[in-house]
Write a structure and sequence with these properties.
Elements lengths: L2 E5 L12 H13 L4 E8 L6 H18 L6 E9 L20 E5 L7 H13 L2 E4 L7 H10 L2 E5 H4 L2 H12 L3 E5 L10 H10 L1 H14 L7
Parallel strand pairs: 1-2, 2-3, 3-4, 4-5, 5-6, 6-7
């Protein structure tokens, strides 16, 4: 079982995916790469809109995608990639951005320098959710990410980063420490990121299967969308 935990496939909702044709192209790439499940983690920017508005837009996008899906395509789950901001723990509806009742939140960290108050927000969000997974941890300062790991956060990495020998050392360390529980294509548009799943499997060997098992555990009990 192969699971893509981070993908931008929702038509008209994700940048790089403006229409249903692009969504179906992406899902066909996933099928060709033997991906069984795709978690649709559309960007949620809390400084731009309310949770209620985002969920309404996501539902509209989902109705378009649902009508076009066929049984041979990967199964789809609805989630979100939520950008962290200082004080976000006070935002209404944060748990509604999680995967179902499991309260699994995919959290995107800002690229700017992290203040102590930002770490405080993560710590409080960790208490609000069952599991908080940090999106594409390879993009950030390793020491800063390790602080969040020690706080109880887990990590997701993009499969493309595993093919980069310069990034791989830190990533393999985290994988060996069981900090990484999910892999993602982070697909935007029609560039076939899914080809990198096979390369990641070859690089990781049995560890790839272990990460897939961890991802599936995060989805256990979550209602399947399709």
């Amino acid at each position: 079982m192969i699971l893509d935990f981070h993908a931008h496939i929702m038509p008209g909702l994700d940048h790089g995916c403006t229409n249903i044709e692009t969504s179906l192209c992406q899902l066909k790439f996933a099928k060709k790469a033997n991906v069984d499940i795709v978690v649709a983690t559309s960007h949620f920017y809390p400084h731009k809109e309310a949770v209620e508005t985002f969920l309404r837009r996501r539902q509209t996008s989902w109705k378009i995608l649902r009508r076009a899906l066929t049984p041979d395509l990967p199964k789809v789950f609805l989630g979100a990639e939520t950008l962290l901001f200082e004080g976000m723990e006070h935002m209404d509806g944060i748990t509604e951005l999680c995967l179902g009742d499991k309260k699994v939140l995919l959290l995107e960290m800002p690229l700017l320098t992290w203040k102590n108050s930002l770490y405080d927000s993560v710590e409080k969000i960790l208490r609000m959710t069952e599991t908080t997974v940090l999106a594409h941890v390879e993009r950030y300062n390793a020491k800063s990410i390790e602080i969040l790991f020690e706080m109880g956060a887990l990590g997701q990495i993009n499969v493309e980063s595993l093919t980069n020998i310069f990034k791989r050392r830190d990533l393999m360390k985290w994988i060996d420490e069981d900090r990484i529980v999910a892999l993602g294509s982070d697909i935007h548009g029609t560039a076939d990121n899914y080809r990198k799943f096979a390369k990641a499997h070859k690089i990781l060997g049995d560890k790839f299967d272990d990460i897939m098992s961890s991802s599936l555990q995060l989805l256990t009990g979550v209602v399947k969308i399709y």
